Amino acid sequence: MRIAICDDSTFDRDLINDLLIRFFSEQPLRPELVQYANGTNLIRDIQDGTQFDIIFLDIYMNDLLGIDAARKIRSLHYNGQIVFLTSSPDFAVDGYDVAAAGYLLKPLSQDKLSRVMARILLNSDSGIYQVRQRSNVIQIPYHDILFVESRNSKCILHRNGGVTYTIYKHLSEIEEELSDLRFLRCHQSYLVNMDYIDQADKQFHLNSGDTVLIRQRDLRAIRQSYLDYLKLKQFP
Fold first, then answer.
1. What is the pLDDT of residue 136?
2. 88 close to 96: Cβ distance less than 8 angstroms
3. How far is the C-alpha of 34 from the C-alpha of 55, rounded, in Å?
4. What domains appear along the chain, each with residue ranges and CATH number?
5. Residue 62: helix, strand or coil by DSSP?
6. Is the peptide bond before 89 cis (omega within 30 degrees of 0)?
7. Distance between CA atoms of residues 13 and 28, nearest Å
8. Model pTM score
9. What is the mean pLDDT of residues 201-229?
10. Structure confidence at residue 234 as a pLDDT band (50, 70, 90)
């Protein structure tokens, strides 16, 4: 993953850089971060073929307004995510024209950035989980994983479509490897992908027809974690 940070303030560029490093320290991805002091140089690099997955773009820059830079970038067929950095929400309506993924109001904070990044990653489906099966390594996209259950000394990964894989690891180890917000440890023996949950009562009912147990003593807190996740996905 490559991320551009475009802001004419050195302080703000370095701050965003540091906040992103902290955010990704808890993610399986390790991005390449590229800084730009103006929109002109960013546009020139994109014209020359430089690719970015996410662009953080300051609204108020000396050489070119961020919203104008975004329009130019979109005209170059850039389909990645654009996040505006601004001290005022005045351009919020204009952001719809360039399909902005979000706004970060200054002063910047870890919480603000993490929430925006979490929403972007949730919709990017960029995660891949590797499962070794004999001499082969199977790469499973995060969005294909329904749930993982622990059985004695091994785990069973259930993939969308009915395929299962046996993994000789503890569930806590797999939980750590799947460090993505969509996965919830809802029971001692279950880790569930919340994107597949259709109904939450005393158990989670998945749209695949499967049922996943919820730890009853923590029922309220676990269901609340699921509701919080839905809110995070719904409101950018």
1. 82
2. no
3. 9
4. 2-124 (3.40.50.2300), 128-234 (2.40.50.1020)
5. coil
6. no
7. 23
8. 0.58
9. 94
10. low
